[in-house]
Amino acid sequence: MSQQSFSSLPLHSDLLSNLESLGYNEMTEIQAQSLPHILAGKDIIAQGKTGSGKTAAFGLGLLQKLNVKRFRVQTLILCPTRELADQVGKEIRRLARGIHNIKVLTLCGGMPFGPQIGSLEHGAHIIVGTPGRIEDHLRKATLSLDDVETLILDEADRMLDMGFQDAIDNIIDQAPKERQTLLFSATFPDQIENIAKRILIEPVSVKVESQH
Ligand code: ADP
Ligand code: MG
Description:
- It comes from Psychromonas marina.
- This protein has helices at residues 13-22, 29-39, 54-65, 82-95, 113-122, 131-139, 156-161, 165-173, 190-199, and strands spanning 44-48, 75-78, 104-107, 126-129, 150-153, 180-185, 204-208.
- By secondary structure, the chain is of the alpha/beta class.
- The protein has one domain (30-208): P-loop containing nucleotide triphosphate hydrolases (Rossmann fold).
- The longest helix is centred in the middle third of the chain and has 14 residues, at 82-95.
- The relative contact order is 0.19.
């Protein structure tokens, strides 16, 4: 549909130059619809198919507002599986390439705790993880969400299908009330409507049918 350039948005020049290096010349439909609201600090509930570019939509939003000098966990991204968390972590690192030393840490189940705890002790700006393992770290007090400003639920419908509802609720209970929350889902069953009502404040709804 409408072709829109990222440079029409209030994005740091180093993010714009990374987008250019990646060959992201135009925004995808979901990016064009959601990014202006995300950058304005709004909560979002967004529906879009696989491959529509959701990662860069939330990734650019969180990177734009990240305070790099503050070495605290400012963003938490929840994903249903390790594979998806790894993909999201990679895309965020690509978008953040060369910008100071933005530290992205991936914390997923099925991996030993020791190295994850060691990495957490070194610190991170952004954490990408699966709900079960994030909940484990909160329980062990090896992770604190006190400084989280942006909370992202990626593929929320799949996380609920996988039985992560309670883990997600526990995690959100430990995040600051004053935060920006972005919820992405391929489908919108009642369960998603319910969780959205509980965790989002006056969200902007975005729905994109087509791939791009
Ligand atoms: P989704 O999470 O919606 O399934 P992804 O965020 O994984 O989609 O993006 C799908 C693919 O599109 C990735 O390979 C990504 O690099 C690419 N992509 C994202 N945004 C753009 C863009 N604006 N221009 C070109 N390619 C893009
Ligand atoms: Mg995705």
